[in-house]
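Hi, here's the filled form for the chain we discussed.

Project: internal
Contact: R.S.
Residues: 173
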Amino acid sequence: MEIKDIRISPTRKLADFKICARFMSGTKPWLTLGRDYRACLTTVSAPLREVYAAKENGKAVGFIILQMAGTFRGYIQTVCVAPNARGRGIGTLLVRFAEKRIFVESPNVFICVSSFNKDAQRLYRKLGYRKTGVLKEFIVRGHDELLLRKTQGPLADFTGSKRRLHGGNDKRR
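And the returned structure, exactly as it came back:
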């Protein structure tokens, strides 16, 4: 199958959440981070998150979770591709989908990547993400989380299509 056959759409279905939790709990980096099925299911089904499933012929092959509220509006919490679907560009497709969604409401996309997850670091670097900080032993002892950011400019200058913030041409002041 070609990447063009992948469809990404929002989901709140428990069946999709369970499949996503199985993908996560059985693969790296979540194995190294000590995240079992129950913890992964809690992550996937958390309220106030946007979950998008990538499906091929109606079958989930990956998903992405976004956090669109709070200080780090535009945070990609999780990107996961099914083990048997990796290496086909689905991760890239999911991240680009998330960027398109996020850049409507924020000039910044944030993501954390584990210090040991070199493949993901390479992908994010290729997609234009830059390291902005290190969260020392944030999840587990012995491994750091790297905070990455892709930006279109400062938040104060942002005049996205759904929201206008201070600065720019905002006439509501």
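Let me know if anything looks off before we file it.
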